[in-house]
Amino acid sequence: MQNFTLHTPTKILFGEGKIAEIGKEIPADARILITYGGGSIKRNGLLDQVYQVLDGRDVREFGGIEPNPSYETLMKAVELVRAENIDFLLAVGGGSVADGTKFIAAAAHYEAAQDPWHILQTTGAQVTNAVKMACVLTLPATGSESNNGAVISRKTTGDKLPFFSPYTFPLFAVLDPVVTYSLPPRQVANGVVDAFVHTVEQYLTYPVDAKVQDRFSEGLLLTLIEEGPRASRTGKLQSPGQRYVECHHGAEWIDWCRRAAGLGCSYDGP
Length: 270
What we know:
The protein is an alpha/beta fold. It has helices at 22-25, 40-43, 46-53, 71-84, 95-107, 118-121, 185-203, 211-234, 238-260; strands at 11-14, 31-35, 58-62, 88-93, 132-137, 149-154, 159-164, 172-175. Helix 7 (185-203) packs antiparallel against helix 8.
């Protein structure tokens, strides 16, 4: 038996229409910065929906966070956070936007070094505070909306490094399956495969007699096999779409359980 402590503090708001509840989760006097990627949330109306929920609040936005978010782009957001005294970050996007926003949160008031790249060089070990943040998920795949880790790239050096910190857990995450309906079939398929692989990489480890976690994993894999093709093909069937998002989040939960118990891949975070 291996002792462990499992703490997953992110509040999950799951289901259709749950975006309407984000106003209750963010302090009324917060100075909010919405972060996003390439602009699809503008084209599909999601950004407008978020603004409607936050009507009357002090809200700004920062777009352009890339897949594999870059340090150079994120530091522009860090400068904005500092200049505008932002005290709440709302990531609206997929895993890259969530990862990038975690770095922004940790870097904004980082004190251990003048250059926040130090966060990546020390795997987040010297982060002592962060701007509060939350996520509205648009692409279920990586699980970044409910964990404390991120992977950031630096274009000038070619480095790509992870960091973890207990200060960068999102306070809450909205998982609304309807949001995925506007995704191209290829993106949905990529997300299904990502959730599958995240589960498999924890399932196919050395023998540890972790029967409960194994049964959870097998249930997730079977459901992804059954529902993944339909969700990928149409993206508009409520049940497959919902089960796809449920599986994605379940895969992340299993990942955390196995790592906390020392039963899966090595984990260097706090």
